[in-house]
């Protein structure tokens, strides 16, 4: 009888706790929400977060605070949220680097990209533009590939550093087409792009925001964008998949919102639905397009998990393949 009584009491306690948790989730939010960002104020990621943060604040009826914590190769913000209470009041925005590349590139990191977070929304893709020194006799991707295959001395290409998304995007292209090219890593984005324009480096994948001025001035020749769709700011430049014939080619960084693992499902669903609604607004989409980025309609919560798993496999495998696993 004592065992049965204890069992009934345990079941009742669990039911009460579950009910309390559900009630708390339904009451959410009762105080300000903080979104911790891995880049400094004024960056594209920060600008977009502030755009939807204002609208999220109106929808939820509580302040939404943007907290910029750059550092540790975009991992400082992720680490902070991985260790935060799973109550829906602390969120982060992470990119491909923090969630798919760095976990393999670095010897140790302070979070698990799969187990430490609950994904909420993937809302922007940040493509790269394949550019060449205008002195290179290639006006499209197929001509560039043909030239690369016919050279005895490989083309060289620049990036802001080993293991960054621009570097891995060229390596992805090399693997797709069995090309030989020499990596020239730089310490910063600006110099890595300027040295293509000045003829010191043959080519590279560059961010739209940094590369557009030199493209407009004719100092860089754009051949393709790395996204599956065209960039509104460069509508005449085709996607790499279209220009090359490799229909599955996509090499982008993305912006995705995450909460700590264990965040109540009603909170996650509310945030997911609000973000989906806000990011579909024409005003928001137009501003993102103008920045050289691509607004993206988030997959469902399950679809989001599947996409993120495929990105971890894609970039993690490439990092291992080119010998950079645990190199940093």
Brief overview, please?
The protein is of the alpha/beta class and 328 residues long.
Provide an overview of this structure.
- The protein has twelve helices and eleven strands.
- With 328 residues, the chain is α/β, with parallel strands linked by helices.
- The chain has two domains: 31-125 and 253-321, D-Maltodextrin-Binding Protein, domain 2; 128-244, 3-Layer(aba) Sandwich (D-Maltodextrin-Binding Protein, domain 2), CATH 3.40.190.10.
- The strands form three sheets. The protein has a six-stranded mixed beta sheet, with helices on both faces. It has a three-stranded antiparallel beta sheet with strand order 8-5-9. Strands 6-7 form a two-stranded parallel sheet.
- Helix 4 (96-105) crosses helix 12 (301-321).
- The longest helix has 26 residues, at 2-27.
- Reading off the top of the CATH hierarchy, the class of the largest domain is best stated as Alpha Beta
Oligomer: single chain
Number of strands: 11
- Name the overall outline: globular
Measured as a percent range, the helix fraction is 40-55%
The whole-angstrom Rg is 22 Å
Into which percentage range does the β-strand content fall? 15-25%
List the helices and strands and how they pair.
Layout: H1 2-27, E1 33-37, H2 44-60, E2 64-68, H3 76-82, E3 90-94, H4 96-105, E4 117-126, E5 128-132, H5 141-150, E6 155-159, H6 165-177, E7 181-185, H7 189-197, E8 203-207, H8 208-216, E9 221-225, H9 240-244, E10 253-260, H10 265-279, H11 282-290, E11 294-295, H12 301-321
Parallel strand pairs: 1-2, 1-3, 6-7
Antiparallel strand pairs: 3-10, 4-10, 4-11, 5-8, 5-9
Helix pairs in contact: 2-10, 4-12
């Amino acid at each position: 009888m004592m065992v049965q009584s204890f069992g009934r009491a345990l079941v009742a306690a669990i039911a009460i706790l579950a009910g309390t948790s559900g009630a708390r989730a339904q009451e959410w939010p009762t105080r300000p929400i903080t979104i911790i960002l891995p880049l400094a104020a004024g960056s594209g990621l920060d600008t977009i977060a502030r755009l939807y943060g204002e609208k999220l604040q109106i929808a939820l009826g509580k302040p939404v605070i943007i907290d910029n914590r750059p550092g540790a190769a975009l991992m400082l913000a992720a680490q902070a949220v991985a260790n935060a209470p799973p109550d829906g009041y602390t969120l982060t925005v992470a990119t491909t680097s923090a969630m798919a590349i760095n976990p393999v590139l670095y010897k140790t990191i302070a979070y698990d990209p799969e187990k430490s977070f609950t994904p909420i929304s993937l809302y922007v893709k940040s493509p790269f533009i394949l550019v060449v020194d205008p002195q290179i006799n290639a006006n499209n991707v197929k001509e560039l590939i043909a030239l690369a295959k016919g050279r005895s001395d490989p083309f060289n290409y620049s990036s802001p550093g080993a293991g960054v998304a621009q570097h891995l995007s060229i390596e992805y292209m090399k693997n797709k087409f069995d090309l030989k090219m020499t990596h020239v890593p730089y310490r910063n984005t600006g110099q890595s792009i300027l040295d293509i324009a000045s003829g010191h480096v043959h080519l590279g994948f560059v961010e739209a925001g940094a590369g557009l001025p030199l493209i407009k001035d004719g100092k860089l020749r754009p051949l393709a964008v790395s996204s599956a769709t065209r960039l509104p700011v460069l509508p005449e430049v085709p996607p790499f998949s279209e220009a090359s014939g490799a229909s599955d080619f996509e090499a982008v960084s993305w912006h995705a919102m995450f909460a700590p693992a264990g965040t109540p499902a009603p909170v996650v669903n509310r945030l997911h639905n609000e973000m989906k609604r806000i990011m579909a607004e024409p005003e928001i989409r137009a501003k993102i397009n103008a920045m050289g980025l691509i607004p993206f309609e988030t997959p469902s919560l399950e679809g989001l998990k599947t996409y993120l798993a495929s990105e971890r496999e894609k970039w993690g495998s490439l990092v291992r393949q080119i010998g950079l696993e645990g190199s940093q």
